[in-house]
Amino acid sequence: MRTIVVTGKTIEDAVKSGLAQWSVPEERVKVKVLEQPSKGLFGLIGAREAKVELELIPDALEEAVKFLEDVFRTMDIQVKIDRENTDDGVQLNLTGKELGILIGRRGQTLDSLQYLLNIVANRYADSHIRIVLDAESFRKRRRQTLEELSNRLATRVIRTRKEVVLEPMSPQERKVIHSKLQHHPDVKTYSKGEEPNRRVVIALR
């Protein structure tokens, strides 16, 4: 919790002074009046300025970024974090050297880090916020790979007339398969099993 005590001729002046020090809008702080201003005797003797305490309200995205920075600092790796607003929420893009350790096998480490990131962010959010974490455009490349795989397996199912059961995938990756084939005229998809071993099945309609 970050707090600051500031003074001013009026309560409003004191609050403005504190906001200027933090460079944040008034909506980002809670104001507690510690002392009311007093003009004193004849406006001179015993005059007292207003004193207020400002408490900074945490920003969900800022806290999420701080969490990532702490992780990278602990791992002793240099990573740049760029923010991108999307239709679904916010995407944080990571760039730097040796990011393979953050991606992991088929993105499993990246998915785990994204899961923790969203827990941290929603601890401070007034309403649910969704953050997608990507590294060196891995998710775009992975999506393309899964879409190509979907087409190949759909062709196999049509040719052999036997359903295909894919390896366990995360909910996000299963969604890519379902979305790619949802309008296919000859095959359908569904999921079976329990997490974390839930799989996509491609079968004839």
TrEMBL record:
What's the domain of life for this entry?
Answer: Bacteria
Locate the transmembrane regions by residue number. Answer: none
Q: Which UniProt keywords apply?
A: Cell shape, Cell wall biogenesis/degradation, Chaperone, Cytoplasm, RNA-binding
**According to the UniProt record, where is the region Jag_N domain?**
5-55
Q: Name one GO cellular component term.
A: cytoplasm
Query: What is the protein's major site of localization?
Result: cytoplasm
Q: Name one GO molecular function term.
A: RNA binding
Q: Which residues form the R3H domain?
A: 140-205
The subcellular location is: Cytoplasm
Q: Which Pfam families match?
A: Jag_N, KH_KhpA-B, R3H
What Gene Ontology biological process does one annotation of this record name? peptidoglycan biosynthetic process
Q: What does this protein do?
A: A probable RNA chaperone. Forms a complex with KhpA which binds to cellular RNA and controls its expression. Plays a role in peptidoglycan (PG) homeostasis and cell length regulation.
Name the family the entry cites: Belongs to the KhpB RNA-binding protein family.
Check the record and name the HAMAP family matching this protein. KhpB
Q: What is written about domains in the entry's comments?
A: Has an N-terminal Jag-N domain and 2 RNA-binding domains (KH and R3H).
Describe the subunit structure.
Answer: Forms a complex with KhpA.
Protein name stated in the entry: RNA-binding protein KhpB
Q: Which organism is it from?
A: Paenibacillus ginsengarvi
